[in-house]
UniProtKB/TrEMBL annotation:
Organism name: Halopolyspora algeriensis
Keywords of this entry: Metal-binding, NAD, Oxidoreductase
Annotated GO MF terms: metal ion binding; NAD binding; oxidoreductase activity
Protein name: 4-hydroxythreonine-4-phosphate dehydrogenase
UniProt similarity note: Belongs to the PdxA family. PdxA2 subfamily.
InterPro entries with a match to the protein in the record: PdxA_fam
One Pfam assignment: PdxA
Lineage: Bacteria, Bacillati, Actinomycetota, Actinomycetes, Actinomycetes incertae sedis
Lipid metabolism recorded as keyword: no
Amino acid sequence: MSDRPVLAVTLGDPAGIGPEITARTLAEAGPEVPARGIAVGDPAVLRRAARACGLDVQVRAVDTWDPEPAGEGVIDCFDTGVVGDTELAWGEVYELAGRAAIAAIEVATHAALDGRVAGVVTSPIHKEAIWAAGAEHLGHTEMLGALTGSTRNNTMFVVRDKKIFFATRHVSLRKALDQITEQRVYHGIQEALTALRVFSTDEPTLAVAAINPHGGENGNFGDEEIVHIEPAVRRARDEGAQVVGPVPADSVFHQLLQGRFDGVLSQYHDQGHIAAKTVDFDGTISVTVGLPILRTSVDHGTAFDIAGKGIADHATMRSAFLAGANLARFADRIRAEYGS
């Protein structure tokens, strides 16, 4: 048996590009990678994707998380038995595809909760498909929270080993501004510091981004910094945390890359996303923190328009898998911190 930890890699929506980018990624993952991957889904779906990509690989159906290594040119797939040999048209919304995507997430998550795998790497799912299958969740994060019983679900972006966090996420910019309060920013600081201690260093330094140009210019360009952000930063510092800010957003991410901080708390979705993806679009990885399991993910959708054509770029999935492999060593710390 291999002594490398195992990552469960879900195929995502069978009609999207998830199976293709998974096939390419696992076909490339040699013994030098510090973890081995097992795909989760229907083997027939993965075989079809491999053919579409022109890959000379064998897909082996398995029903255990510690199969004997089969050697080069073989991808193991933990069979969820949902789609079977049914061939779904590429790029279409299917209730069956939604069920398959949900089943893969459930199987992989339970394996991680039971300690049979070190973590989960997720391919993109299609919201309409999972809703057609009866899911009540907006997406992966909410589904994983329900499966693990966690209410501390936050997103950590990792780019060039630097971490970016978010005080608000999937709301309009106008709503995000309304949601910025001292308590929300303080909570975001605490969650970011906890994640940095779990995934990085025992004594992290966190920068908190400003919202307004030039950090508000003492209230002349907006008072969110004075009313909400500065008090939250001061409160955290009074408790002994190494927190600085608010730092103007046009310089804080540059300073992060220069190594001044271990992480940045951005105030809204695009503030952090634009910075990370401009630095390295394919290398920006999403890690869901707050769960009692390790979960990394691509940060793109199912790309129905190119599904089945064998042209989907798997660079982001490769980065997500490699990040999961490198973070697998923190599985016990993740469980200890977020499992209660």
